[in-house]
């Protein structure tokens, strides 16, 4: 579809007309920048223009403007409508001109045009009405410009006589027509020369008052009997009373005093993000790789810690503060960092709540026997076991990809939400839809620096603030804090923890991570915020599946590419350790998995980092024996994996423990202790600490206990024995550590705000569809088909007509008869009383269903008024 | 190529000793990292604030520290760790104590907020006087030690540049006839003198007394020497007469029996800390002369009251001598702030390699308890358990076997429990030295032992410290003060003095198997293994049979 037919016609009279004149590419740009306009696909350009003017959509579009584009919009909102480009330039650059503004303004206006916030030619720029309402100053919503109402508005409530007095006091020729009187006054105020002359006569005090109000807020308090200098100002309309006791500085006066500038300072250029420190790229990559390895190891350690069932899920969801503390201690990290690791594992789908699923219980129960309702706990998912099988680099890639796309923000953990609820790790209310965009934008800024260069975090934050200034009174975060800034800070910290950056500079792997992911925003820094009313509506089925795909399934190919980049930087896993006489083993690098696992059972980890220090203790050796190893196994294992001879004390330790291990055997059925060596039993019986176990000698080699077997085991161990449990058949019972897993779980989907960004195919199709619909609706009118009100037949009207009728009905409160096709394609007729028409939906009281319902307009086949037959 | 050092996130440094760069790396990190363990393959160093400040006091800066780590590290050093190091080092020296021509002792700062911060502390307020200017505040001269201690606790250690009084001059020279200070001893003296005050860490048997003598020869001033006990005091005297120009008359002994105050006075910790009617009557010793140097022997044993006196001695030069900075009571920071930073440190193994101390063969002998002993052990009260297993009859038999095995060699049997020692003495037909043995008898027995007139001596823990038995080649430890690591090191020191014939020293530890004796032994030996003394384990039956 081309625009030849309309090209070159007269200036457009409405936004719809202008849109009709635009080419397909520019429509596509509009739809890409404001994807909410596409849900659902509008029938024609009129509908598109209407939707682009709805409040929700305009608020969202304004929220996405950079500082200067927003300033331009604010300036337009205080300019007379329509304003010429030149007038706009004057408002931003001031009377003296400003080269930077001149350079940046065309771009800003183009942005506003592309977003359909501004339309009309350069001579007649118009801000979309809703935007104007939002940005224009009013007593309730002061404008960031600090300007008050125009003279015409300020004097609208004034009696004609009073206006006459003003005219005379200002030295203008009197006229009886109030309208021309006001415009004469406006003319005077906007004429710099005459105005200066007028002010030259002003009392000094009066100028002082003006000076205080110049940059806003423009309202001031006066007493019932104002002082002379105030009276001087009031008499000339330089101050206008708005309500008893309050006066306002008219916009034109303020602009005169400001030298024509709508803003005290303009920010035409984005603040630069200069390199703050330069490192050799090799150092950066190596540091990042080291941290990447640490990240993978930490997540593994976390889930190992929770191997046999993690902490309980709070009733309200999430991890209790105490459990988070405990986890932080286990990971040897501060709590916020621990929260990050927990959330990262969650986002990557490696851990989840088990939903109260009861795993196999331990052989003897945990002491208090009897049926118990299984407590809901956190645990590793089956996906974790698969993840563990991957090479380290791929494990990292999985984490990094999940991190970049996640909307969960661990940085919020420990804080409170708008309802003063404490936000807990893994708990609800941690999703922030803006997070992925901020993350990407921060990394993009780092990517803009030369390789190896780190940025000053404050510069990054300043740039982000410029790109998305917070509009006064438009904070979407209930806490009122600048969420974007906090997100950006967290991003910098988290990127370093994860090894996406090293020493503050983006690593090569980090760059690759940015290069491609399905969530890539084409315009770099467009993010969504605010809340959407669209989620959950049937209209979105089509999109939500797409979105589910993009966010969830992982991207094996991409992850492998990333991993391939990272892998050469990671140290090769080792197959050996160094054993020392002080009963330690040092692994001077990461170990191969089976080796690390066995060693982890046989010895306690003493120090972590690039290397791992293990310490052998009687307890750790016994643990290995309990896990079914024999002393011979352990000796062979150590010999095979040690680079150096096994130190004698270590061999002795293993033999010593093994000699005593299993020496005592304890049965479950009747809780007995038996031992071939009856003196040992004598020893136990003689020990006072055994009293609690209530032991009785049955035979020279057997003791019976009243205590349950588990307590018996513990008791004897605490007395320094190494008993082992036995089965009814008399074999040693091996109790391997029981792995606790959740049922299959999918990782949480990021919760993006608003509809997903349409891809090019969809955009093309949408534009074609809109054009086609538009052709149909604007084609030379045939005689309008008589509304068929034959019973049983759905009313059919064009979408423009439907919309108009609906809107009219909202105003009149009339009930309408509509035809409606539901998501399954079933047609029905309903009688509704529309309450609100917005964003492509009509909310109405449905008389047929007797409740308030919301219908997507595009499913309404037609509408007819009631009561005609 | 991969470096020899691995920097762990918990601030330990692992050094692979077989690596070709290991030596260079060790030298680079030794100034700021404390050697924690030195087993055969991988040495563990630890980065602590005190260690970093020690380095800073010795003139190293953060950049050198970071460079050393980055240079030798095998893996990238975590950025956070480097930042932390730089910040920690930077804390030292922001505050300095110095002499002001008009106001006397002052605390001044190059960083005003730091001064403000510490002055706000309640613990600092009583120690300081008027503010002279925004960066300087007067300190009561008597509180020089107190304020250093307090500032260290606040994390802002002050550099003490206030200087020292010279003290009463007294000529002391080393009498280097036929011997000379060993190179490391010279280095230690030099480092100490240059630093003003501080601690020299040398292994037992490495000649700490001579470092003290060297320092005195530098100071050429009256000297107060504080030692652990009377025997040790006599040895100091003996050694000083032999090695320096001092005569017997110039050296006084201030102990329970004698109260001499001479230009060089040797006092015991015990007499100083004796309390009568709530006061320390012997404190006047510190003020009795204008001391130019105070030497603290065995700093790691310095009793708490001595710290308190030392706080008042900050204007005098102080030399601490010790084999280890590890204090079982964890008061290392007081040593740092009151005596001074570490000025010299040499690992045992290195000095052993230079031939100055004898290599030792450490053997743990495991003894099986008899059935009746096990039963008795099980029924013993918790607090009696150690005593019981440490003094079993089986142990005695094994000890006798060991003594027989080393017949003809000078053998020490060391133990904790007097009745056990008496019994052993009776069976071995050897004299017993214990707490009640008079000093005269002790010295006579030591002399006889030195002369070889007696070859076996049974000693209690009174002989733990500072006795010199040059010809003891075998030490048999039958029981110890539970798990004291420091005691183990001292006892090993008994046999580490170089032997005339270059004979290898033996150190036996007799341990009852499967009892807490074994647990304590493991704890003590861990210290030895960490010092690089690999020990063997042997079964008692091997000795009993053979």
Automatic annotation (TrEMBL), chain A:
Q: Where is the WYL domain?
A: 801-863
- Composition bias, Pro residues: 745-758
**Start-end of Basic and acidic residues biased regions:** 517-552
Q: Name one GO molecular function term.
A: helicase activity
Q: What is this protein called?
A: Helicase-associated domain-containing protein
InterPro entries recorded? WYL_dom, XPB/Ssl2_N
Residue ranges of the region described as Disordered: 136-155, 259-278, 516-552, 739-761, 774-796
Provide this UniProt record's keywords sorted from A to Z: ATP-binding, Helicase, Hydrolase, Nucleotide-binding
Q: Where is the Helicase XPB/Ssl2 N-terminal domain?
A: 577-699
Automatic annotation (TrEMBL), chain B:
User: Which Gene Ontology molecular-function terms are recorded?
Assistant: helicase activity; hydrolase activity
Keyword field contains Nucleus: no
EC number(s) from the headed UniProt entry? 5.6.2.4
EC class of the enzyme, as a word:
isomerase
Q: Which InterPro entries match?
A: ATP-dep_DNA_Helicase, ERCC3_RAD25_C, Helicase/UvrB_N, Helicase_ATP-bd, Helicase_C-like, P-loop_NTPase, XPB/Ssl2_N
- Location of the Helicase C-terminal domain: 397-543
What residue stretches are annotated with the Helicase ATP-binding domain? 189-343
Does this UniProt record's set of keywords contain Isomerase? yes
One Pfam short name: Helicase_C_3
Record-linked CDD domains = DEXHc_XPB (cd18029), SF2_C_XPB (cd18789)
Residue ranges annotated as transmembrane are none
Q: Which UniProt keywords apply?
A: ATP-binding, Helicase, Hydrolase, Isomerase, Nucleotide-binding
Its domain of life reads: Bacteria
Instruction: Tell me the SMART domains matching this sequence.
Output: DEXDc, HELICc
Catalytic activity field: ATP + H2O = ADP + phosphate + H(+); Couples ATP hydrolysis with the unwinding of duplex DNA by translocating in the 3'-5' direction
Similarity section: Belongs to the helicase family. RAD25/XPB subfamily.
Q: What is this protein called?
A: DNA 3'-5' helicase
């Amino acid at each position: 579809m081309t625009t030849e037919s309309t090209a070159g016609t007269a200036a457009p009279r409405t936004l719809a007309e202008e849109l009709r004149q635009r080419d397909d590419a520019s429509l596509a740009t509009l739809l890409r920048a404001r994807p909410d306009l596409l849900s659902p696909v509008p029938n024609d350009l009129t509908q598109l223009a209407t939707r682009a003017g709805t409040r929700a959509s305009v608020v969202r579009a304004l929220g996405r403007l950079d500082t200067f584009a927003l300033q331009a919009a604010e300036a337009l909102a205080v300019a007379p409508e329509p304003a010429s480009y030149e007038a706009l330039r004057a408002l931003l650059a001031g009377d003296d001109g400003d080269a930077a503004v001149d350079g940046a303004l065309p771009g800003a206006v183009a942005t506003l045009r592309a977003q359909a916030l501004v339309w009309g030619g350069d001579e007649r720029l118009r801000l979309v009405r809703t935007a104007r309402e939002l940005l224009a100053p009013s007593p309730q919503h002061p404008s960031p410009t600090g300007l008050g109402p125009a003279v015409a508005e300020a004097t609208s409530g004034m009696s004609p006589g009073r206006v006459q007095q003003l005219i005379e006091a200002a030295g203008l020729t009197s006229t009886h027509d109030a309208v021309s009187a006001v415009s004469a006054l406006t003319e005077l105020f906007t004429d710099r020369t005459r105005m200066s002359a007028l002010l030259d006569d002003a009392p000094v005090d009066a100028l002082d008052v003006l000076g205080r109000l110049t940059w806003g807020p423009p309202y001031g308090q006066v007493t019932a009997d104002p002082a002379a200098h105030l009276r001087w100002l009031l008499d000339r309309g330089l101050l206008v009373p708005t309500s008893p006791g309050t006066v306002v500085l008219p916009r034109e006066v303020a602009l005169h005093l400001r030298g024509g500038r709508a803003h005290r300072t303009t920010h035409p250029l984005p603040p630069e993000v200069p390199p703050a420190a330069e490192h050799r790229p090799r150092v950066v990559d190596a540091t990042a790789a080291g941290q990447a390895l640490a990240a993978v190891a930490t997540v593994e350690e976390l889930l190992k810690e929770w191997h046999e069932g993690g902490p309980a899920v709070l009733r309200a969801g999430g991890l209790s503060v105490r459990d988070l503390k405990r986890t932080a201690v286990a990971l040897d990290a501060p709590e916020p960092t621990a929260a990050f690791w927990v959330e990262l594992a969650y986002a990557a789908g490696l851990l989840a709540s088990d939903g109260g699923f009861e795993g196999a219980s331990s052989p003897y129960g945990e002491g208090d026997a009897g049926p118990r309702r299984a407590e809901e706990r956190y645990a590793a998912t089956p996906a974790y076991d698969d993840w563990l099988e991957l090479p380290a680099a791929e494990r990292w890639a999985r984490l990094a990809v999940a991190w970049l796309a996640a909307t969960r923000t661990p940085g919020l953990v420990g804080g409170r939400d708008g309802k003063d609820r404490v936000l807990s790790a893994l708990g609800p209310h941690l999703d922030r839809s803006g997070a992925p965009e901020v993350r990407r934008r921060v990394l993009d800024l780092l990517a803009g620096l030369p390789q190896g260069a780190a940025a000053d975090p404050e510069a990054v934050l300043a740039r982000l603030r410029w790109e998305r200034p917070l509009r006064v009174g438009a904070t979407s975060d209930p806490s009122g804090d600048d969420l974007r800034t906090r997100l950006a800070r967290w991003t910098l910290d988290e990127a370093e923890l994860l090894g996406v950056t090293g020493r503050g500079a983006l690593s090569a792997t980090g760059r690759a991570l940015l290069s491609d992911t399905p969530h890539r925003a084409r315009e770099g820094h467009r993010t969504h915020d605010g809340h959407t009313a669209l989620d959950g509506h049937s209209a979105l089925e089509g999109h939500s599946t797409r979105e589910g795909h993009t966010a969830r399934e992982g991207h094996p190919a991409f992850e492998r590419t990333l991993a391939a980049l990272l892998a050469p930087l990671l140290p090769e896993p080792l197959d050996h350790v160094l054993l020392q006489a002080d009963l330690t083993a040092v692994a001077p690098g990461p170990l191969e998995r089976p080796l690390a696992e066995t060693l982890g059972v046989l010895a306690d980890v003493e120090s972590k980092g690039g290397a791992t220090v293990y310490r052998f203790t009687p307890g750790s050796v016994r643990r290995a024996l309990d896990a079914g190893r024999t002393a011979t196994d352990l000796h062979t294992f150590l010999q095979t994996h040690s680079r150096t001879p096994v130190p004698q004390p270590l061999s002795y330790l293993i033999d010593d423990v093994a000699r005593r291990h299993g020496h005592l055997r304890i049965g479950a059925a009747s809780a007995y202790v038996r031992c071939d060596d009856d003196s040992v039993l004598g020893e136990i019986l003689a020990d006072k600490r055994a009293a609690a176990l209530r032991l009785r000698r049955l035979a020279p080699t057997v003791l019976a206990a009243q205590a349950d077997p588990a307590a018996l085991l513990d008791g004897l161990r605490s007395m320094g024995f190494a008993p082992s449990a036995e089965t009814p058949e008399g074999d040693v019972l091996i109790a391997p550590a029981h792995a606790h897993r959740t049922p299959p779980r999918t990782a949480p989907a990021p919760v993006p705000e608003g509809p997903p960004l349409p891809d090019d195919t969809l955009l093309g199709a949408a534009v074609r569809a809109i054009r086609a619909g538009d052709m149909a609706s604007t084609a030379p009118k045939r005689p309008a088909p008589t509304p068929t009100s034959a019973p049983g037949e759905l009313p059919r009207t064009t979408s423009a007509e439907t919309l108009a009728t609906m809107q009219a009905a909202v105003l009149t409160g009339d009930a309408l008869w509509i035809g409606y096709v539901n998501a399954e394609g079933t047609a029905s007729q309903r009688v509704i009383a529309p309450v609100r028409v917005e964003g492509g939906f009509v909310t109405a009281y449905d008389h047929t269903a007797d409740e308030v319902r919301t219908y997507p307009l595009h499913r309404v086949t037609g509408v007819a008024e009631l009561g005609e037959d | 190529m991969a470096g020899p050092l691995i920097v762990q996130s918990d601030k330990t440094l692992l050094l692979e000793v077989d690596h070709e760069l290991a030596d260079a790396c060790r030298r680079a990190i030794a100034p700021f990292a404390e050697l924690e363990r030195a087993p055969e393959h991988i040495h563990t160093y630890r980065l602590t604030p005190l260690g970093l400040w020690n380095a800073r006091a010795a003139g190293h800066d953060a950049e050198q520290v970071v460079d050393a780590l980055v240079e030798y590290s095998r893996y990238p050093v975590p950025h956070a760790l480097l930042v932390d190091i730089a910040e920690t080092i930077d804390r030292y020296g922001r505050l300095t104590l110095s002499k002001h021509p008009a106001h006397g002792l002052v605390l001044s700062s190059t960083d005003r907020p730091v001064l403000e911060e510490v002055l706000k502390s309640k613990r600092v307020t009583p120690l300081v006087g008027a503010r002279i200017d925004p960066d300087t505040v007067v300190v009561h001269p008597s509180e020089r030690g107190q304020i250093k201690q307090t500032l260290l606790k606040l994390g802002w250690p002050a550099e003490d540049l206030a200087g020292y009084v010279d003290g009463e001059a007294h000529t002391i020279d080393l009498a280097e006839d036929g011997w000379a200070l060993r190179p490391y001893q010279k280095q230690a003296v030099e480092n100490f003198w240059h630093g003003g005050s501080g601690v020299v860490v040398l292994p037992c048997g490495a000649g700490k007394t001579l470092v003290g003598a060297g320092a005195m020869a530098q100071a050429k001033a009256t000297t107060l020497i504080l030692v652990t006990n009377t025997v040790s005091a006599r040895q100091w005297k003996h050694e000083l007469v032999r090695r320096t120009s001092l005569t017997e008359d110039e050296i006084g002994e201030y102990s329970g029996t004698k109260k001499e105050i001479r230009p060089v006075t040797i006092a015991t910790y015990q007499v100083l800390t004796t309390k009568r009617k709530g006061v320390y009557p012997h404190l006047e010793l510190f003020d009795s002369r204008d001391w130019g140097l105070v030497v603290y022997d065995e700093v790691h044993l310095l009793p708490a009251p001595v710290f308190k006196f030392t706080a008042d001695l900050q204007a005098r030069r102080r030399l601490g001598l010790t084999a280890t900075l590890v204090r079982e009571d964890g008061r290392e920071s007081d040593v740092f702030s009151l005596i001074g930073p570490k000025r010299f440190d040499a690992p045992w193994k290195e000095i052993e390699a230079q031939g100055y101390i004898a290599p030792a063969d450490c053997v743990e002998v495991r003894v099986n308890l008899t059935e009746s002993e096990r039963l008795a052990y099980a029924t013993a009260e918790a607090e009696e358990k150690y005593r019981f297993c440490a003094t079993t009859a089986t142990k005695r038999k094994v000890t006798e076997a060991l003594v027989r095995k080393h017949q003809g060699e000078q053998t020490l049997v060391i133990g904790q429990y007097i009745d056990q020692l008496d019994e052993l003495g009776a069976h071995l037909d050897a004299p017993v030295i214990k707490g009640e043995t008079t000093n005269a008898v002790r010295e006579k027995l030591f002399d006889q032992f030195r002369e070889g007139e007696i070859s076996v001596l049974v000693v209690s823990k009174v002989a733990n410290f500072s006795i010199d038995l040059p010809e003891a080649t075998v030490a048999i430890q039958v029981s110890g003060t539970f798990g004291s690591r420091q005691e183990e090191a001292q006892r090993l020191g008994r046999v580490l003095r170089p032997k005339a014939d270059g004979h290898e020293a033996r150190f036996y530890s007799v341990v009852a198997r499967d009892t807490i004796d074994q647990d304590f032994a493991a704890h003590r030996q861990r210290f030895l293994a960490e010092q690089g003394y690999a020990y063997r384990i042997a079964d008692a039956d091997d000795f009993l049979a053979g």
